Amino acid sequence: MSEGLFSVLFPSDCRICGEPQLNISRLPVCPDCVAGIHPVRGKMCSICGERVLSAYAEMDSDGLRRCPVCRRIDRPYGRAVAYGSYEGGLRELIHLLKYNGVRPAAKVLGRMLADAWTALEPEFEQAAFERGMFDQQPILVIPVPLYKSRRRERGFNQAELIARAALKVHPLRVQKQLAPEILQRTRDTHSQIGLTSHQRRLNLRGAFAVTRAAEVTGRDVILVDDVYTTGTTATECARVLRRAGARRVWVATVARTLKLATQYADIAPDLDEADNLVSEDVLAKAAGS
Ligand SMILES: [Zn+2]
Ligand SMILES: [Zn+2]
């Protein structure tokens, strides 16, 4: 068998674990690596999706569990949900899409996003009920936009590809409609890495705008992104959408950085023992509001 034919039949090794792929697939990732990506486990803040330590794991009277940060501040979005922790295979898969242009990864990530927003379906139904039978417009699915030069460079907006894939997955209980043009990024922003929360907010101020406010007025919105890191981007986008008249905004991402998890893994292998010793201020700081 010639080398060329061989490479056609066995196109590539898995881009995550390096093992040869047994089946021909458009996605250069083996089934084991995909199967190894799990949803977030443990107790999460119902509002922002951060993992909460057991001292704060009690539910409030409204049935929601709030982290120390969400107890203190009002978020411009109702709830933020994520499928998995931004690490390991999931992080690799997102990078393959974003930085290596491996578009078939969007399909797998879209399935995960659809899984994540399933948790919000009861709220979507409640919102549809509240709007009443004469206002049954679909929920707008709005991807966090890229600045136009960056989008041109990459050739696509990963958040939009993931949202499109997610919309194809589930039999939708409440109708959803992709609306990629409504929210725009009006200037390029520097990387948020290494900035304080105050600097991050300044960095993003005025970076997003709603182009056609009439289309978002009175509407319910799911804001979609690949990763929720500090929440500054989601917060700023939600704020702009609400100011343009959006009725409610939810946030759904494929992945989320779980700061408490990584921060405490080193110092407190037994979380239940140790978290009673940690003051709320330290927790708030760790959550990096
Ligand atoms: Zn693999
Ligand atoms: Zn929270």
Q: How would you sum up this structure, described in words?
A:
This protein has 289 residues and is α/β, with parallel strands linked by helices. The protein has two domains: 36 residues, no CATH class; 183 residues, Rossmann fold, CATH 3.40.50. The protein is 40% helix and 13% strand. It has 13 helices and seven strands. It is globular and about 50 Å long. The site of one zinc ion has 8 residues, from helix 2.
Keywords for this entry:
single chain; 289 residues; alpha/beta; 2 domains; five-stranded parallel β-sheet; two-stranded antiparallel ribbon; 13% strand; disordered C terminus; binds zinc ion
In short:
This protein has 289 residues and is an alpha/beta fold. Helices cover 40% and strands 13% of the residues. The protein has helices spanning 3-9, 31-35, 68-72, 88-100, 105-118, 121-131, 148-154, 158-169, 197-204, 232-243, 259-267, 271-274, 280-287, and strands at 80-85, 139-143, 176-178, 183-185, 208-210, 220-228, 248-256.
